[in-house]
Amino acid sequence: VLNKLVLFFIGYTPPHRNQVSAQIKKLYHYHYKLLKQELEEVEQLALTFDFWSDRQANSFLCATGHWIDYEFHYISKIIDFSCFDERHTGINISNYLKAKLISLNSHDKVISITCDEAENMKVACRHLGDNIKRVWCCAHRLHLVITNALGFWFKEKSVDNENRSSSMTRSTTTTSTVISTQDDDLLNMSWSDENNEDSSSSDDNIADVDMSDAADGSADSDNINEAEGAEGAEGDHSTSDQDDDESGDQHAIVDNWSNDIETDLNPIEELILIMNLLKKCRTIATIVKKSSVIAAFVRKEQLLLKTKKMIRINCKTRWNSTFLLIEATIECKQVLMKLFSEKRSFNLRSEQVNRLIAVELNNDEWDFLSSLRFVLNPFYHATKLMSGKNYPSIGLAFHAIHKLKHFCSKDDTYEEKIKQMKKLLLAKLNYYFYDDLEQHEHLENHSYFDPAAHLTLTENEKQRNERYIKDLILNDVYPQQSSTSDGSKASSSSNAISTSSTKSSIQLPQSLSNNHTNPSTCDDFIAACGDDGNIIGESNKERSKRLSVNEELKYFKLAVQEFNLKNKPSTTTAMRFWNIHHTKLPLLSRLARIHLIACGTSVPSESAFSISAHTARKERSRLSSQNLCYSVFLKDKISKQK
């Protein structure tokens, strides 16, 4: 009967789930063979990998592969997404990855792996091969810089009143800086269900979620890849916000990003202010979500003011969720001010009114919140800029980190609190990015081939990288593969572009200049830093013959200067530069294909986890782990075919 009704209303009988499962398995094996054939033509390969666990505590390992073809197209694909039932030791991870790479005939082609700073990841990279570089995830490092510098998750140590008062006397913190014990209790009190008139205060904890959960960061909305907004801004497409139930599923994504967050330090005045302000903002977000009366009021006022920002609780594993919480709170300032002024008109109980009073922000707090947004704005756009998966990101990450250091070093006429926050961020930037000399050298060497990096490289750094390049070429560190298919592809690519490249030489076509009407992600980042991002260069002399190593380096430097004068950094500039000049720079262009494939972040793996979390949502509880692996693996293969 059910099948007849479905046939009558829909017009066809849908396939049985067993049939769909069998078809997915066939598609997986078909595209796996195609991937294997495609990787046979790849000269060098870069990887990212990470772990994810679903609702049933099933563990999955995702590995993504990245390479550049002979026509300088950047390619990123999931090469493996599988269940991982063994212990997550470095040896087990290494053996598993090595077996997968050998099955794809690609183990000897891997030159770099981008992952987080977990110890098992470091051990796995060391055991995969001596010639494989481990590159830190810049987004993870930037996350630690911000959260630990500004104390997003600091917890005030529990001390008695006598110690608290003596501590306050010794410090320069004002009495309004620290939330009183009574107000702190109100912030941590659960929000009662105003629809239940018979509920008493003793039953409040049954009706609602305790605020201590929100304060600890177990938020309902952990958008794993807000950073993927950069891809939407530059042409890559990703899944945006889901509904409440679906966004609630995202917190199931578990990674190592919260492991190194500091929580038990004795903060200074500015950090105490940030800690208390964020606690109030989280409480406001919880109240708006839990109270139907207040939520309806907020929605109504937002419609009148045409404000679309939603106040959502931040999470501990993604720092930019805190920035979005701050930004939404500021944008909804008029709505919240009206809410606080009319709080006694909602027929709330006295403890609920008292809680609204406790989270009300005064003028000084609103000003400090705006200052905090100003300081974090460049970091937010830098995170978006470096977090793409369909374009070379390591050069943009290097450029963004140096720009952030310059932004924090500028001693402009800002108020003292802004200067103090920038000073704290600068100290953590040096600690996480510049004190690790080996990792910084890897980042610098790979970024040299991206024109964007030359906007921040010093002359000494450029000379050091030139010596590194000469050493690679003279010692034949990356020997040329003698494959007929490689030669045919290289020659066809050269013939296709040689005519236009010879005519243009260093004088780039106007069509390639970055005169977009709408600002790009990098434009937003540069504007947030307060710079124009330009450099003073010199014109280049036209050359028509193939060049030696030294001459190629000279040509390359002049070409980069000319290119940067006419093109602002973006997610496409690296590939466009080499599409123009690769025939003039045969030695350097080959090294560029090798070095630019290294990922600046592990976002490609994290993006796959966003897909898997959505695919394995609670409405699809019958989806087997194996079919989930097949579906995630096929996602970027079938989508690109369409």
Beta-strand segment tally: 5
Helix content range of the residues, please? 55-70%
Kindly estimate the percentage of residues that lie in beta strands according to DSSP: 5-15%
Structural class: alpha/beta
Oligomer: single chain
Question: What's the shape?
Answer: globular
Number of helices: 28
Q: Mean pLDDT, rounded to whole units?
A: 78
Rg (CA only): 27 Å
Low-confidence stretches: 158-178, 195-253, 483-516, 534-547
Region (Disordered): 184-251, 480-515
Biased composition (Low complexity): 482-506
Keywords: Metal-binding, Nucleus, Zinc, Zinc-finger
Main location: nucleus
Textual characterization of the structure:
It holds the Pfam family Dimer_Tnp_hAT. It is found in: Nucleus. Residues 194-213, 223-233 have a biased composition (Acidic residues). Residues 184-251, 480-515 are annotated as: Disordered. The structure is a single chain. By secondary structure, the protein is an alpha/beta fold. Among the domains are: 1-137 and 601-639, no CATH class; 267-389 and 397-408, no CATH class; 436-478 and 541-600, no CATH class. Helices cover 56% and strands 6% of the residues. It contains 28 helices and five strands. A five-stranded mixed β-sheet has the order 3-2-1-4-5, sandwiched between helices. α2 (17-40) packs across α28 (625-641) and α5 (138-149) packs antiparallel against α19. The longest helix is centred in the N-terminal third of the chain and has 24 residues, at 17-40. The radius of gyration is 27 Å and the shape is globular. The protein starts with a helix and ends with a helix.
